[in-house]
Amino acid sequence: MPALTLTNVSYAIGDRRLLNKVSITIQHGECAGIVGRNGAGKSTLFKLVTGEKTPDSGEVVRARGNTMAVVGQDPVFSGSMTLLEEAAQGLEAIQDLQQRLDDLYEQIANIDDAAPDAEIDRDGLLRQAEHVQHELEQRDGYATQHRVEIVLQGVGFTQKEFSLPVEGLSGGQRSRLALSKALLADPDLLLLDEPTNHLDIEGRQWLENFLSTKFQGSVLLISHDRYLLDHCVRRIIEVDNGGLIEYPGSYTKMVQLRAERKQLQMHAYEKQQEKFARESEYIRRFKAGQRARQAKGRESRLTREMEEQSIERPLEASVLHFVAPPAPRSGDIVATLNNGSVWYDVPADDSNVAHRRTLFEQFNVKISRGERWGVIGANGAGKSTLVRCLLGEQQLDEGNSRIGSNVEIGHYKQIDATMDLQMTVREYLQREYRLAHDGKLLSEQEASDLAGAFLFSGRDQQKPMGALSGGERSRARLASLMVSGKNLLVLDEPTNHLDIPSCERLEQALRPTSQDGKYDHTLILISHDRALLDALCDQLIVFEHDGRVRVFHGNYSQWLESSGQPADAGVNQTSHQSTPKQTAQPQPAAEKPKAKPNGESKRNPLSWMRDEQLDEKIEELSALVKSLDEKMSDPKVYTDASLCKQVIAERETAKESLDQHEAEWLRRADG
């Protein structure tokens, strides 16, 4: 039995149907990724799996006896436990085994004190104890303290934080604690909703390795971390417009297959729209004439097809449709930091000894025009502090910094206290543009185009900023920055709160704009988003484990390899295996009209057909073309190159025959 099965599950909120008759199966030991726009229904899908929500129809079945752990985005902890004690609660199953073993040993020890007539199976108790002891050994149950500490450190906690009371933890700390408990529980089914949101790069690498090499259960993973999805999962499930679309392999493979699917879907949509237009024109011309009966029949078929078989136009565009204003040319040297040092005094601990912590010391870096720099390191290492010092926004304890000539800085910070929450998205973009360009105006249409380029629908553009989610506000701020005309863009964790389409849209906006592939602006990117770093940055400032800071000339993957961590380290070897190919059931080709024995005109092979026969044949061929169009939108088809090619060929044959029959019908109607 599979670990999880959803069959024809539907769920709606009011009039909005989030999921419509969706079905998926998760096998034992499989790691599947869930992707989709914010609000598409990903978290709702999780709540249906956990039983927190009940489907309107359909069935959700988990394997009987399987354990499950869930990590949401807003975990809550209360009570007087420390962080270490709370994390250890994840080992409840092991603790139960330990208690059971203690009870068995106590029963065995008390056998001699039992009443003479008591019937006690000593050998049976010993066998039970041996079985429990073996299970504890299999689950590493004799090193629980060490396991808890390893997992806590893996997600970024220090030993000093182990004694923190859980009631005083920050939101990010609570999220990492919840992740630790779930991993320690070692469930049969693990549901993770954005588990990397509060992890730094090292924490993300650790989680990736744990899921790929240590965890043996099934995983359902919602994430906008494209690097994690590329290296851990072997199947992607996209929540799109109420349905679930499955893609074999990694996220990168999914992007390729999705583009092919949308191309096929657009082709089918355009062909169907052409057919609707032809049918409507025929009905308009002959509804009141001699062929009114046939026109009425075709009108009924057209209405039925438009209601029941209409192909939806693909919604997502892959191209960024806006042109950013050119930035003024800066000097060759954009920013320098010479022998820079920053430290701060740490308050005295229980030993009454104060000490100094150095964030970076005697650090040097020179940033030239057009370069793309990434800044990486653990949370709290000092990344934002270094960048502020480089920009002259914070004073150095030693050394000096300098901004080059004609440098104009656009700085995206994680918090913007100046945002007017009453403004609509469009008004906000217009105001920010006016402030950045000395009063120059951005027209309503230009503001609408800019908002649309950053995935705001027409309705969303009219929402006040205060009504937007954190991710939507981030998109609006990034959109305004992209058209600010600044030649030095400094982005501090820009993909926090963004969904994958928004991350990809930001990546597109930051790519070269000139024809020679060079950048109009210089970029400094502080980020834990490894896919974004790989795509955009070819120079790195790295905060290392030992407190040192160094410059690396190369992208993130190259840095991993240079540090002894190959870019594909920890990749699940099954993650890129495709699902078995489906055996194609060939559709019958459209029948070729048989030649009549009476020697009728060879120039018109359809002239022998009666009007009723021709009408029936057109309906038959229309249904066949429709069926083949639907097959081309089926993942089982478009993920199998040979099957996809076969279906396309069958469709072309059927469509050619349909066109011939419809042309004959129009010839007769005109005659």
Task: Tell me what you see in this structure.
With 671 residues, this protein is of the alpha/beta class. It folds into three domains: 69-250, P-loop containing nucleotide triphosphate hydrolases (Rossmann fold); 254-314 and 580-670, no CATH class; 333-562, P-loop containing nucleotide triphosphate hydrolases (Rossmann fold), CATH 3.40.50. The protein has helices at residues 42-50, 83-88, 92-109, 122-138, 144-154, 171-185, 201-214, 226-232, 251-286, 292-308, 383-390, 425-436, 444-453, 470-482, 500-509, 530-536, 556-562, 611-632, 635-638, 641-670; strands spanning 4-13, 16-26, 31-35, 57-62, 68-71, 189-193, 218-222, 235-240, 243-248, 333-346, 355-368, 372-376, 398-403, 409-412, 488-492, 522-526, 539-543, 549-552. The strands form four sheets. It has a six-stranded mixed sheet, sandwiched between helices. β17 (539-543) and β18 (549-552) form a beta hairpin. The radius of gyration is 32 Å and the shape is flat. The relative contact order is 0.09. The model is unreliable at 568-602 (pLDDT under 50).
